[in-house]
What does this fold into?
Amino acid sequence: MEANDRLVSLFDALGPIMVGPSSSHTAGVLRIGRMGRIFLGGDPEKIELHFYGNALARTYKGHLSDSGIVAGLLGCPEDSPDVRGVLDTAKRRGIAVSYHPHYDSDRNPNTVDMRLQRGGKAISVVGITVGGGEILMTELEGFPICLRGSEEGILFVSGRAFGDGEIESMLGERPLQVSSSEKEGRRLYTCLLEKTPSAGTLARVRGTDGVAEVFSLEAVLDYKLRNRQPLFTTVADMVRMSEERKVSMARVAMEYECRRSGLSEEEVRSRILRIWRTMKQSVEKGLTGNNDMVAGLVPRDCGKRMMQAVEQGRTAGGPVLGKAVARAIAAMETNACVGCVVAAPTAGSCGVIPGALITAAENAHAGDDAAVDALLVAAAMGTLIAMRASLSGSIGGCQAEIGVASAMGAAAMVHLLGGAPRQVAHGMALAMKNILGLICDPVAGPVEIPCIKRNGIGVANAFTGADMALAGLESAIPPDEVIDALVNTQQLLPPELRGTMRGGLCSTPTAQRLKDEWTRKITASAGK
It folds into this structure.
């Protein structure tokens, strides 16, 4: 399997449902932890974590990455409320956990290397968070691998070569795919199967002459890649398909996911409806104003106060935009206190689409079915962007998060309000190109400053893009070329402006003071 063998799902661009604060550095690393647990065969007795580069290595405390990985290693799902307190749980259970940041590494800055022990067995597992909760497992016991969390099968290390017929006989079935890598005279075989191997199959492989180690492979995602031939890969193709067949963009998005993942239409709509309801719940929780944030660098009731200002007629933008901004901030406050949110496309941008779409649906008196259709369109736009650009702030800046969320939100609102397929595409493009170059500069590390209020700005951008598209205005640069421009901008953005806490707002005296205060707080907490 090649590293670029990747066909993005709608549920990669809109999801996972998770606890905050970061889709890459909390939910993504949790999934990496779950993969480590599967390879280890159960709960670890000792955990040694190595973080690489100037993103994950510097922000792992503020993003609860340490908690996320340990939660995954102990079998927790992405939306588990136990994530925040899992380090205490590990300590009570006598599980030793240590951390080793490597700031000057030239490895991908979202890389974590887990050295795990259980019952006298020690293994090394390396994974990368791709963005928005997506993962790529890159190493097992020093052998290169390429697994994305949706696969099932068996991996085994051998001191000799195995032919296809011998592997099929050993497994008792024809594998979907077999790949291998070699190191120091030994080979690692990755055999992908239709389902998780049985205990009998694992025992048979272990007993085969020449096999030294065996690892079971189980999916950590609840959707798979069933068909590698995409229905479309560009915005232009999606628009053309919708226009030629005279069907909605939501219909085409639905068919894309059913083809890709093998899910039924009912399953896809049910999942999107759960996402929609979780979005609304995240807003409602944030609007209570009772938000116990991880770092507490900002007031805990900004969403509530913004909504009060709207209700009292004290906003310049009027009730529609004001409510949308309040809701976006509220969802982000839920995220910042490790509450349950939807990564859209990331946790750091989880307020934009709920803020925009809840308000637009309310204003248009649209029900859940219309909202689900709008979210299908938003997810499709996010998927097409993710096929070419990064959704990770530490790889591509905040343009990869709030920028993409604004584009998805604009497309959703244009569809909700009856826009034609071409207008949907241009709503996305108008919002996206307006926010190119937006940097990722999380003050002190936690997803609070400027992330929470920046979601409010992202909502305003989404409304502007949607309104221009609905009025018939178009982007002079075609939508697919705008995505190419995003890729270009991400590549040119210096590392100091990609989540490393070294540039932008992070360079200010106030940010340095807050960083020092946060460092003292987490140091004191670690010493307890």
